[in-house]
Amino acid sequence: MQSDVSIMGNDPIEKGLITDDTQFGGFWRRFAAVIIDFLAMLMPILLVSTLLRASIFFVTDIDLDVLNFIESIVTICMWWLYYSLFHSSSWQATLGKRALRLKVVDLDGHRISFARASGRFFAQYLSALTLCIGYMMAGWTKRKRSLHDMIAKTYVIKAEA
User: Fold this and answer.
1) Predicted TM-score (pTM) of this structure
2) Which of 88, 100, 89, 90 is nearest to 40 (CA)?
């Protein structure tokens, strides 16, 4: 059976860039990190949503469906910036991943770019569209990679203390 990495591209294990001692972030630790990230973003999203609704609703006579659409776009942009900026930062992790000592790296074990972090974020929608099986793949693939990790050519590894 082919490894989960070699199916999607170059295998860094074969190149010696990720060692056999590398500890990867498993499903449950990553799931807990998502819960922490949700809690961290809850207040900012509610605040922006409230301000957006108040400013648009009282200034214009806008249709509720249009307002909901605008709010959805703003919320997606907030999540995109949160994940992409943190994953491409020197932390290489969101608040949740950092709290649980995880970080996102490329196949060489280096920090990912904002562009790769953005691609990884939007690839999460594919993980969700597969009835979340794309996320659950982190529980059974050899290097604990989800579908969006394979697409973006990233790993989630345990950070050194």
Assistant:
1) 0.83
2) 100
